[in-house]
Design a protein that fits this description.
The structure holds three protein chains of three kinds. Chain B is mainly alpha-helical. Chain B contains ten helices and three strands, in the order βααβαααααβααα. The chains are: A alpha/beta, B mainly alpha, C alpha+beta.
Chain lengths: 756, 209, 229
């Protein structure tokens, strides 16, 4: 022990200092009395909710006693505490059903990350330099209050913007109510791969602004248009559980599925049939199938009800969508269209899905409406083996008077544009929570430049990333294992599900739960919020909402929720709620997709995609995920761009060669990965790498395809058409070692018979 | 992450070379570990921000290899005999983990204070530990019995308790002693002999996994 | 009767997601080697997903195949170990005894499926990642070979719990980390000696076959994908 610690010790403990820490080097630190009585060596299991994506899988956390280094009252020491050791899916949870994807398994590394922000920070040095000094929570909250009080005093409450990832539930509503009562606009939701186009299409077709759930377990046939439903899209764990049952869970029946996409995805690799269609033509293909189904007399156009009527020419049987014409548009052979259509109509129950790139073309809304109509035609809406809408607990427990979405929130690109257009930024205080738009949005949106103009930025995040490094003040949130967590899944189960769980362990660092900080700020504003919040803590807010759910046999629903990690069951379903009238909309027709970049100059479609390891990059800081071999390429710690072998040969590109990929908006550099899984005029690059700032594991690694995307919108929506960019390629050099593959030979040798 | 370490060299190469390497690279922290971003240069093996199986010194490596551990130095002279004679059995109050699983556990001051908040409070030593407890500081007991990391032993108390093996069989007459001492050398021969006598498995995987 | 632990892998359920890979890392204190060592082929994925591409665009197919140590009853890694670190146990496991291993790496050389991994260096974890360690599994140091153990720590824990409760182990009581995490339930673990167990039933499926035809008597059976109904 060094002299300074010894002096500190004697100061606080007097003669007792000698008792507490002398001895062999392993006991250099003093030991604190534990907070809890624990039996060592024996694990207990606590419920929680995985934070890695929006699916909201219920997890159980294996918790055991360990010696951990902590800081108490400014003193560093060790303490026996209960810590999380492993995450598993919760067997009885309707979404996870006992399983957990690799991102969920890796989520535990968030809590133990060495680069986690451990205490409040205040910027020193220039913005963006990343130099901060440690301050106390009192100082941090006082600083935030100064800024908010100043806005209030100047009647500039609308200059406050809260940026977060989309969500539902008490946490989201608490933020919304705070903003509303303060007088600020609603929170700005940001998520790159957000599927808002599908929600909008479902609102038009079915009156439900919600992602669909698919009953694959009872399906005999499924067609997925671009949806990576087994990998990254829309509740992959629930989908995979259902997929397993679709294959071999129904006695005597093996469900089949067909994947239609421009790039072989992990889901596509599992399909019985893989059908490449030209980018942006998936909706036309869906209508081609519908045409055949009606022409063959297998269904009548009126069977599709309202969703059908949204498609131009539907009542007449879609005369423009003959197989021959659709073949010209999509590149899919007419005979194949006819066969798929018959299979879809005859091998019931059948369901069609759409997600991913088809929704991110300029005609994405049309594509979604077309697939909705196809599903309605086949009779798969709200039927076993088909698609349906998961009952939403939010509808049952949140009173309408408290509806937070009073005005449509501004999108991030419009926010950035507004800030840049004005002389003085109309946003004076920006609060950041669980969003990294400086990384995950196209450079063309200039989000970084816009944020630079904002006078004061505070972040609740746990890590320094491209966006939070611009902060002036950091008030670090707990990790999910250390907080009350909540998830209201939008899809993935037949029952209504609310996942709610208490902290699985005490905080490791000097962090505080963001909702609790917000509640304290609300109490301490110079002009108090009106009406004031009735809760002291987030826990109280959760109890107030979820404690109103119907009781089970045990009586006390709130205790039961805490033990199980949530509530699930049947809500009283009103038919009208399920199949509402869609909103009116002029009938849509296929329009050739527009692309950013002229085909003569930019010959390739550029398909970025949500990667299995990192999704949109928000998980790139977790080393287990960096080292996880990518499903289709086995690449680790790398960025790459997938190119068709013929294209590679024509351009003189070999595996591993360094390429410049240029769009109209910039270029990125990555290694070539030769792959037969895409057409010669398509190149693909996973999103997630290319962070400039995101902990020691992701910083300065790889390249970020999102940067060079064109800022085109999906027609009829605010959503980014992230699949609509065209690029050109240039070979820079031979391999530079940047492409790291786990696998050796990935082509099957012809003489080996591995069975079929 | 992986870091080339001096102890790796010591196991393969000559001891002298290993010693030179250990002294030069083993003990002195030279900065933050690079952990993956530019990990072509050797990084420190021992600083407080890294956990590694590398040993800090050659002496550590040799001790670990032979299963030698220094004797425990306890912060106070805890008298087992006094407490046991007052009815505190081994596993009921202080070493509660033993019947339940692998780790018997060492009690925290919370346990001591259950009685000593009111018992023997006139004794200076009790006043000292009360003061510590009041400040949230615990006694730093050192383990008396245990295995080095290099032994790769996953010992589980629970099956032994279930088989009615007396605590004293492996730990000696601790109940009649003051401070616990390593009375019995728990080497592998000791375990294997008893296992053979009692017809418990002697397959390697019984303990080493 | 002695048990014979085995796994059935249903390739028609496996989606290639890699949950098993990460779950295994979390359960077994497997070190993350970092980019430089991974580039040298030293990443330690006790279970891995192999992918095989067939055909040319547009008639392309991909097949996923999870591969882990098959605990072969005629394991070629066992006779070559000079110190008996790799040996067969009574319940059919290929044991890797870390203490005995002196790092000759003959076993990895002999293994036809490349499922054995060597610690070329002392692994290190940036703190506080070490708080996540599973205390029921050793942390291996330099010079030691390691591989899938069928989560022997879970087998032992289940046995101990069953004995404590005075009952027998039933099928499904033991779930290695990979099988437990798999969202599609493609991996089924159990006692091949128990004719009623799920793994026995699946191993006898007409779709079932071993990975390699080398007479190794592996305990992992692969159920092929059915491409046609």
């Amino acid at each position: 022990m060094d002299r300074r610690s010894f002096v500190k010790l004697t100061a606080i403990t007097g003669a007792g200092a000698a008792l507490a820490s002398c001895g062999s080097p392993e006991n250099q630190l003093i030991r604190f009395v534990p907070d809890d009585d624990l039996v060592p060596g024996v694990a207990t299991w606590k419920p929680s909710v995985c934070p890695s994506c929006a699916a909201g899988c219920g997890v159980q956390v294996r918790v055991m006693e360990t010696d951990a280094e902590v800081v108490r009252n400014g003193q560093r020491g060790v303490i026996k505490m209960r810590v999380a050791k492993k995450l598993e899916g919760r067997p009885e949870h309707p979404i996870s059903q006992g399983g957990l994807c690799p991102r969920g398994q890796a989520a535990i590394q968030i809590t133990y990350h060495p680069d986690r922000i451990q205490h409040p920070l205040k910027r020193v040095g220039k913005r963006g330099e990343g130099r901060f000094e440690e301050i106390t929570w009192d100082e941090a909250i006082a600083e935030l209050l100064v800024r908010l009080d100043a806005l209030d005093a100047a009647s500039a409450q609308d200059a406050l913007v809260f940026l977060t990832r989309p969500g539902r539930g008490v946490r989201h509503r608490l933020v919304a109510q705070f903003l509303e009562r303060f007088g600020a606009p609603p929170q700005v939701p940001f998520e790159l791969f957000s599927d808002d186009v599908l929600r909008r299409a479902n609102a038009l077709s079915f009156g439900r602004e919600q992602l669909p759930t698919f009953d694959l377990a009872r399906a005999r046939y499924a067609i997925s248009f671009g949806a990576d439903f087994l990998g990254t899209w829309n509740s992959p764990v629930a989908n995979s559980a259902a997929y397993g049952r679709m294959r071999h869970g129904q006695p005597g029946i093996r469900g089949r599925f067909v994947q239609v996409e421009a790039r072989m995805s992990q889901t596509g690799a599992n399909a019985d049939e893989w059908v490449p269609a030209r980018p942006g033509t998936e909706g036309a293909l869906a209508l081609g199938l519908a045409h055949v189904i009606v022409a063959a007399g297998l269904r009548r156009p009126e069977d599709a009800g309202r969703p059908g009527s949204l498609i131009a020419g539907w009542a007449a049987g879609l005369p423009a969508y003959t197989p021959e014409h659709v073949e010209q548009v999509t590149g899919v052979p007419a005979r194949l269209i006819e066969r798929l259509a018959r299979e879809f109509a005859e091998l019931g129950p059948a369901v069609a899905m759409i997600g991913g790139a088809p929704l991110a073309h300029s005609n994405g809304l049309f594509n979604a409406l077309a697939v909705n109509a196809l599903n309605s035609l086949a009779g798969s809406v709200e039927k076993p083996g088909g698609m349906f809408f998961m009952p939403q607990i939010g509808d049952a427990i949140f009173r309408d008077a408290e509806r937070p979405d009073r005005q449509a929130p501004r999108s991030i690109d419009r926010l950035a544009a507004d800030v840049l257009a004005a002389g003085e930024s109309p946003v004076e205080v920006l609060l950041l929570d669980q969003a990294n738009p400086v990384f995950a949005s196209p450079r063309a949106w200039k989000v970084g430049e816009a944020f630079d103009k904002i006078p004061f930025i505070a972040s609740f995040g746990s890590f320094l990333d491209e966006t939070s490094i611009l902060s002036d003040l950091i008030l670090p949130d707990h990790s999910f294992l250390e907080s009350w967590v909540e998830g209201l899944p939008e899809s993935g189960a037949a029952a209504a599900v609310a996942s709610v769980a208490p902290p699985a362990m005490r905080p490791l660092h000097q962090t505080r739960a963001m909702p609790d900080v917000l509640l304290e700020v609300g109490r301490r504003l110079r002009r108090p919020l009106s009406p004031p919040f009735p809760w002291q803590t987030f826990e109280e807010a959760l109890q107030e909402s979820y404690g109103t759910l119907p009781e089970g046999e045990d009586g006390d629903v709130w205790s039961a929720i805490q033990m199980r990690g949530g509530w699930w069951g049947g809500l009283p379903r009103r038919e009208a709620e399920v199949m509402r009238e869609g909103r009116s909309h002029p009938p849509v027709d296929f329009v050739e997709p527009q692309f950013d970049g002229d085909a003569g100059v930019f010959p390739f479609h550029f398909l970025t995609y949500s990667s299995q390891a990192f999704l949109d990059g928000s998980l790139a800081h977790l080393p287990w995920l960096q080292e996880l071999p990518d499903p289709l390429s086995s690449a680790m710690w790398s960025s790459w761009v997938e190119i068709n072998p013929k294209t590679a040969q024509a351009l003189g590109i070999a595996q591993g060669d360094v390429l410049d990929i240029c769009s109209r908006h910039g270029s990125v550099r990555a290694a070539a990965l030769v792959s037969p899984g895409l057409a010669p005029d398509v190149v693909a690059m996973p999103a997630g790498q290319g962070h400039r700032t995101f902990t020691r594991f992701a910083s300065g690694r790889g390249a970020n395809p999102i940067e060079i995307l064109g800022p085109m919108a999906v027609a009829g929506t605010d959503a980014l058409a992230w699949a609509a960019t065209r690029v050109r390629l240039a070979r820079v050099s031979g391999p530079d070692g940047g492409l790291i593959l786990f696998a050796g030979e990935m082509r099957e040798h012809p003489h080996e018979d591995h069975g079929r | 992450m992986y870091r080339p370490s001096s102890s790796g060299a010591a196991r393969i190469g000559p001891v002298v070379l290993g010693a030179i390497l250990a002294i030069s690279t083993g003990c002195t922290p030279t900065g933050k570990p690079s952990s993956g971003s530019s990990d072509s240069r050797p990084s420190p093996t021992h600083d407080s921000s890294t956990f590694t199986t590398a040993h800090a010194t050659i002496a550590d490596a040799v001790s670990d290899f032979f299963g030698v551990r220094p004797s425990a130095k306890q912060p106070i002279d805890f008298p087992h005999d006094v407490h046991v004679s007052n009815g505190l059995t081994c596993t009921e109050f202080c070493h509660e983990g033993a019947p339940a699983g692998p780790v018997a556990g060492l009690p925290s001051l919370n346990t001591c204070m259950i009685c000593h908040a009111s018992i023997a409070i006139d004794r200076p030593i009790i006043q000292q530990i009360s003061a510590l407890h009041g400040k949230g500081v615990d006694l730093s007991w050192q383990r008396v019995y245990g295995y080095t990391a290099g032994a790769h032993v996953r010992f589980d108390h629970a099956p032994h308790i279930r088989a009615n093996v007396e605590c004293a069989t492996c730990h000696g007459p601790v109940a009649q002693q003051r401070v616990a001492e390593r009375n019995i050398d728990l080497n592998m021969g000791f375990c294997v002999t008893c296992h053979a006598e009692r017809k418990a498995s002697n397959d390697c995987l019984t303990c080493h996994f | 009767m002695a048990r014979k632990w085995g796994i059935a892998v249903d390739l028609d359920r496996c989606t290639g997601c890699g949950a098993c890979v990460t779950a295994c890392h979390a359960e077994n204190n497997i070190p993350t080697v970092g980019a430089a060592e991974a580039a040298r082929g030293r990443a330690m994925h006790w279970i891995r997903i192999e992918r095989y591409w067939e055909g040319e665009f547009p008639d392309v197919r991909v097949k996923f195949r999870p591969v882990m140590c098959a605990h072969c009853d005629a394991a070629p890694c066992e006779p070559v170990c000079p110190t008996y670190a790799s040996h067969h146990t009574a319940d059919g496991l290929n044991a890797q005894v870390y203490n005995r291993c002196i790092g000759t790496r003959y076993c990895a050389n002999a293994c036809p499926t490349n499922v054995r991994f060597f610690n070329f260096f002392n692994p290190a974890w940036d703190k506080p990642f070490h708080l996540q360690f599973n205390p029921d599994v050793s942390v291996r140091s330099v010079g030691i070979m390691e591989k899938c153990t069928f989560c022997v720590q879970r087998i032992k824990a289940a046995d101990s719990a069953a004995k404590a409760d005075g009952r027998e182990l039933k099928d499904g009581d033991v779930q290695p980390a990979c099988a437990q995490s798999c969202p599609a339930k493609a991996l089924v673990f159990g006692d091949l000696q128990d004719p009623e167990s799920e793994v026995s039933r699946l191993s006898k499926s007409p779709r079932g076959r071993p990975l390699l035809d080398l007479g190794l008597l592996p305990k992992v059976t692969y159920l092929s994908r059915q491409t046609d109904v």
